Prior knowledge:
This protein is of the alpha+beta class. Helix content is 27%, strand content 20%. The protein is built from 4 helices and 9 strands, in the order βββαβαββαβββα. The protein has helices at 42-51, 76-84, 104-115, 153-165; strands at 5-6, 31-33, 39-41, 71-72, 92-95, 98-101, 120-125, 128-133, 138-141. Strands 7-8-9 form a 3-stranded antiparallel β-sheet. The longest helix has 13 residues, at 153-165.
Amino acid sequence: MAEARFNDESQPTKLKDDLECAVCLQPCIHPAQLPCGHIFCFLCVKGIANQSKKCAMCRKEIPRDFIDQPHLVPNNTNAEQTKTYDEGYQWFYEGRNGWWQYDQRANEEIEQMYKLNQNSHEILICGQLYVIDFENKFQFPKNILLERDLLNEKNLRMFKLKVLLV
């Protein structure tokens, strides 16, 4: 089970303010400090740990158990966000282990695009770009590889087979 450890060694009496994440380039949401000392949003660290397993700043390896036992850094921004998070509509997405709520910043961005009647919207989640399709109520990573080939009889049979198998 995931367990957060708060790391307040550097400033034991004052919460850290104005922490900016080097991955999403926005104020940190649930800042997490890596063993090398660099601080990122927890979701950004999770994305880095799953993709490269190295710190985005110094390239030192991220321990395997870091996501399950992160070193969270307390800050005033998270305390303020928690107070106002219960107001208005909330957006959720389905994951392997059930339904998950977007963080406040993503929730506000998604809600704004939905109110503007956009068909889809691109959003950065865990350091990866996702497309949210409002019409089909679907979210998918943007970097899905596409292939272009000339249509011939062999390719057409392969396509029909793939469609039938799905």
